Amino acid sequence: MTEEPRPTLEAVAAHAGVSRATVSRVVNGDPGVREALAERVRHAVDELGYVPNRAARSLVTRRHDAVAVVIAEPETRVFADPFFALQLRGISKELTARDVQLVLLLTEGRDDHERVGRYLTGGHVDGALVFSLHLDDPLPGIIRRAGVPTVFGGRPGWAQAGPGEPNASYVDCDNRGGAREAVRHLVGLGRSRVAHITGALDQTSAVDRLDGYRDILVDGDPRLIAEGDFTPAGGERAMRELLDRVTELDAVFAANDLSASGALRVLRERGRRVPDDVAVVGFDDMLPVAEQADPPLTTVRQDIEEMGRLMARMLLRDRAGDGFAPGPVNVVLPTALVRRASA
Fold it and tell me: Which range has the worst mean pLDDT, 48-57, 169-178, 262-271?
């Protein structure tokens, strides 16, 4: 049994009684076609089952209808941390609504960076969405050399650098303000020895949250700060370190909910009641983590899914022309304290 030939652009034009050029403009989303003609073309497309040839269309439009999402973390971290799932969901929703394909690229080492660079310079995508960058990460330079439009998730380390440094469009939350609110809440509860478990300090979000902690506790005891890495295991290690250093601490602000979950486990092991003996506040408000913690976690909420949507929206803006809108655009979303039983 032979396959029926796929309907062509010419067949759609003949069926609709219009020119091939008119069909091409409608299929490619050109707004300069009268609605009556456009409706005839769309009806013919549906009746014939015409499917546009994306490869041919990209030659005409110079677009590939695909966006690379680059996460600067190994796959073991990406698939274990719900933060990435939430951000990817927001990105995917926005791209799907615009009929744009998501291409996921993960990096674990130097070979992966080179692979990502080759892919981006190969002309496969219209742009890149990049997040979870580390300060010494070569990805920004690789992406810059690839020449693809890019939006970053989180403030890149160079974004506040002086003249001559590269500009970047990014979406972030008010990390420093959210941290201030968390610590202010703990101090307002009467806690006088408030510790902080940091995130990975080679990431700007962790540095900003540490700065917010220090904004409130200007003369705080440096022994009350322990470095974590945004993981439950890192939260456990830091919490043990803090309790060994300062046995009388009575509150902990963790840089994210996963770190806070690790801290809660150690506090239970050490026989410390939460919040009676030690109050705990996290950051992110990732519901699977925060609501199922024991006790449920007071935390600073950032809208992770909306951040993903905004990143995609910024990258795809003004796609009706030949390219993307020029110039960096930076968005910082507000945060809010969500009170539960842990503090």
Answer: 48-57
Examine the pLDDT at 1 and tell me if it is beyond 50.
no
* pLDDT (0 to 100) of residue 3: 52
Is-contact 234 262, C-beta < 8 A? yes
8 Å CB contact between 170 and 156: yes
Task: Please give the Cα distance from 76 to 78 (Å, whole number).
Answer: 6
Confidence class for position 30, pLDDT limits 50, 70, 90: low
Q: Cα 78 to the chain's mean position, in Å?
A: 11
Give the whole-angstrom CA distance, residue 20 versus residue 23: 5
What is the 3 state secondary structure string of the chain? CCCCCCCCHHHHHHHHCCCHHHHHHHHCCCCCCCHHHHHHHHHHHHHHCCCCCHHHHHHHHCCCCEEEEEECCCHHHHCCCHHHHHHHHHHHHHHHHCCCEEEEEECCCHHHHHHHHHHHHCCCCCEEEEECCCCCCCHHHHHHHHCCCEEEECCCCCCCCCCCCCCCEEEEECHHHHHHHHHHHHHHCCCCCEEEEECCCCCHHHHHHHHHHHHHCCCCCHHHEEECCCCHHHHHHHHHHHHHHCCCCCEEEECCHHHHHHHHHHHHHCCCCCCCCCEEEEEECCHHHHCCCCCCCEEEECCHHHHHHHHHHHHHCCCCCCCCCCCCCEEEECCEEECCCCC
Has residue 95 got a pLDDT over 60? yes
Query: Residue 173 CB: number of other CB atoms within 10 A?
Result: 25
Q: How confident is the model at residue 111 (pLDDT cuts 50, 70, 90)?
A: confident
- Look at residue 93 in the predicted model and tell me its pLDDT: 92
Pick the closest to residue 240 from 253, 228, 255, 258 (CA basis): 228
